[in-house]
Every structure is written in C-alpha cells, then in structure tokens.
Amino acid sequence: MNEADQAIVDRLKRCGTATISTVLTKRGLNHAFMYGVSPLPGSRPRMVGRAFTMRSVAMREDKLAADKAMDPRLNLQRRATEECGVGEVLVIDCRGDVHGASGGLMLFERMRVRGCAGVVSDGGVRDAWEIAESGFPVYASAVCPPNSTLAHRFIDLNVPVTCGGAAVYPGDFIAADPDGVMVIPQEIADEVSREALAYEQQEEFILQRLRDGASIYGTYPLDEAGLADYAAWRTARDRG
Does the global pTM surpass 0.85? Predict the structure, then answer.
C-alpha cells in the first residue's frame, strides 16, 4: 500500500460509517450504503481497504460437472483468495441470494494470513463462529452452512459489481464498522476521508458538551458561539 492510500485508510479508520454517510450525502451520493450486510455474529470488527471484487450469477445445473472438474487454479473463489491484495477487501456480489455460502473458514483464513483487510458479501457465509473467533473482518447478509454451488456460480474478478444494493468499482474504498458497510468512490476518497475526520472531531466536542449537560439547542448543530468554543477547544488540544 502506498503512502497516500495508507493515509486515507488511517483517517477512515477513525470515522464511523454514519459520519462517512453524512459526508457522501452532502456530495449527492445517496446509494453508497450496503443494505442487509452486517458483521458476523459475535464479531465487532472495523475494516477499511480498497475493493477487489468477485461477481456471480445464479447457479445452473448443467454447469456443475464442468466446474467440479476445473483445475483449482482456475476456480475464481480460490483465485480471489490468492489475488486479493494485502490491505484489500474482497467484495462478493451474490445478487442478495443467501441460499449458498459465498465462502468459509479455509478461504478466509488464507486471506487473513496473507494480510487482506477483510471480506464483504451480500450472500451467505459458512463457518461463521470460527471466522469470528479468528478476528478476520467478514461482513455478510446471512450465515449459511450449505456451500456456494447451491446458489452461485462465480464468473468474474475485479469488475464493477453490486453488493447490498451499492455499486462497487475495483479500487473503491470500503469502510465498515458494526453499523454496516459504506463504499467511497476512489476518485474522492482522499477528500472524503479528510472531511469525515474533521466532522468526527467536531462531533466528539459536541458529544462531550451534551454529556456535560448542554442543551441540544445551539449544540447540535453548533451555533456561532459553539463554533467559537469548538475552535478554541481544537487549538488547545492541538497544542497539548
């Protein structure tokens, strides 16, 4: 990962998905949240990285025999496991179908060891409790023990996909926390990460004022006096 990408990742890791959503909405991007995609039960991981994508179509029975006879080095699930880069997030387009697992412990453990940032799928995931115990960030639409061939045929890597109703282009930034998963277009990721971090810092100040007993009026959002207090607070913190 280059220095510019690392700086974006570091900033986004300090921002909640709610904040990122607010910043994107201000820019007119209202369809960047993945609906129905959540962290696996028992896990609360945060995850940020560039997207490496895998696309599927619905399984059709006449393709099963050829797929099972395929050289494992041509199998797209295994290729994605080995080709998703260090610090990247594998985004799996399952068309919202949760009737077959889009992956499980063996594939995702290999990705964890390789240094991938995590996995997002709008399909099912098997071996969920073991994956959660490993600490590897995985977000999915369901836990589903039956394997992928019940529902999915994976047909392409690193192409534009739809996951959880959100368009994802290879290289976009994915940011996820317990609230869900956001997609940040790569072309504006640097600006969005800076704006989101500034917004997060202001909300830290606002939250502290509310906890100290301040009224919501003039505090959220900050009025002119509140903004002056916030500027002074930031100056003092930066010096200290």
Answer: yes
